[in-house]
Amino acid sequence: MSLPFLDEFRQGAHLRALMEKLNERAGELARPVRIMEVCGTHTMAISRHGIRQALPESIQLISGPGCPVCVTANADIDRFLEISLIPGVIVTTFGDMLRVPGTRMGLAQARGNGAQVQIVYSTLDALKIARENPDAAVVFFGVGFETTAPTVAATMIEAHENGIDNFLVLSAHKVVPPALEALCNTPGLAVDAFLCPGHVSAIIGPEAYEPVADAFGIPCVIAGFEPADILQSMIMICDQMTSGRAEVELQYTRGVRPGGNPAAMAIMQKVFQPADAEWRGLGTIPASGLAIREEFSAHDAAQRYDVDVSYSREPAGCLCGAILTGIKTPRDCPLFDKGCTPDHPIGPCMVSSEGACSAYHQYEI
Q1: For residues 62 and 43, what is the distance between their CA atoms, to the nearest angstrom?
Q2: Residue 279 contacts residue 270 (beta carbons within 8 Å)
Q3: Which CATH architecture best describes the domain 78-175+283-304?
Q4: Measured between alpha carbons, how far is 322 from 145 in angstroms, rounded to an integer?
Q5: DSSP for 300-333, written as a single string
Q6: Domain locations along the chain
Q7: Contacts for 318-323: CB closer than 8 Å, 24+ residues apart
Q8: Torsional sign, CA 145, 150, 151, 152
Q9: Whose CA is closest to 150, among 276, 286, 270?
Q10: What is the mean pLDDT of residues 22-26?
């Protein structure tokens, strides 16, 4: 039988050994390197466990656009807010979105102005609300990457097959690989390697990153979310860089398989098709969004509700866009922990559970 204190001791010894190995590998690097952790869950884990502060000076971790709430453009948030104010509409969303500010207000303020806003834990919850309220239009805000898009697609298929036409989705879904290519083409941003997201990769598979590694000569390692996973992944990146390789490697073998999840991808592709999409900080990226196919247009909130969001703009002084591209850190923002706090967020990076500013506020100040 394993005793808890022995497990903790063994884990601590393992982490110390990994840190020693990382320091050894970092000493072999020809120059300092910047590694971008793409995933917001990685950002939280790195901050929570103090990994950033423990790294050797030759390795710098920078946060990327892996928080789906954070990269959602203000125009998309404002569109959902405008729809929420239409009489007879019930809007549903995950909890992260409730306090994310739009240009004029957030969902919490919209609810105070009479909007029917319900927080759900899954799209099936939203579908249940639609069944129970046949006289209302129930709109789900589809925010997320390839991890969540298949479940939204499956729910839309169920609604379509059962004739539940009052269930709609406003799709702001995005896919990750085109954003990495856009980052590689961003002037002034020097990224030497990508720590790739585990959850997304479980759907799309490691092969999805090969065009990035091949075209730009940037090592990519798919990492798990424990401290040992992250340290091991950085060792793998250092090994690639010292040997002059730029490949896609899989550290998170317990969660990701070659080829990903073909069944989930097939469901996603049945409902969604590639479309240009606007990313906060990166602008419009071709074929980086997921639009609802014509066959499911009866469930497309963007087609049913033509709302005016021409007033949309980024909040004054907010550096979320630059933080999401790794050009700035949360500490560079003049609003960080001053005008912008978790209680009074100005930008989404402070309020999202995967936001870099939220991570820094909780663990690095």
Answers
A1: 9
A2: no
A3: 3-Layer(aba) Sandwich (3.40)
A4: 20
A5: BHHHH-----TT--PPTT--HHHHHTTSS-GGG-
A6: 78-175+283-304
A7: 318/346, 318/347, 319/347, 320/70, 320/280, 320/281, 320/347, 320/348, 320/349, 320/357, 321/280, 321/281, 321/282, 322/281, 323/63, 323/281, 323/349, 323/356, 323/357
A8: positive
A9: 270
A10: 95
Q: Of 34, 148, 69, which is closest to residue 358 (Cα–Cα)?
A: 69
Sign of the alpha-carbon torsion through 51, 53, 58, 61: positive
- Which whole number is the average pLDDT over 335-364? 94
CA distance 102 to 80: 9
Q: Provide the token pair at 169.
A: 């989705």
Query: Letter for the amino acid at 182?
Result: A
Q: Which two tokens stand for residue 82?
A: 């405008």
Q: Name the nearest CA neighbour of 75 among 274, 324, 308.
A: 308
Question: In 3D, which of 161, 152, 138 has the Cα closest to residue 272?
Answer: 152
Distance CA 108, CA 354 (A): 19
Angstrom distances, CA of residue 56 to CA of 23, 27, 37, 222: 6, 9, 16, 21
Whole-number Cα distances in Å, 345 to 103, 141, 175: 12, 20, 26
Query: What are the φ and ψ backbone dihedral angles of 116, each rounded to 5 degrees?
Result: -90, 100
Q: How far is CA 72 from CA 84, 158, 168, 287, 309, in A?
A: 17, 26, 19, 15, 14
pLDDT in tens, 173-219: 999 999 999 999 988 778 999 999 999 999 999 999 999 999 999 99
Pairing verdict, β 33-39 and 193-196: parallel
C-alpha span between 129 and 118 (Å, rounded): 9
User: What are the DSSP E strand ranges found in the chain?
Assistant: 33-39, 59-66, 89-93, 116-119, 137-142, 167-171, 193-196, 220-222, 248-250, 272-279, 283-292
Q: What is the pLDDT of residue 303?
A: 97
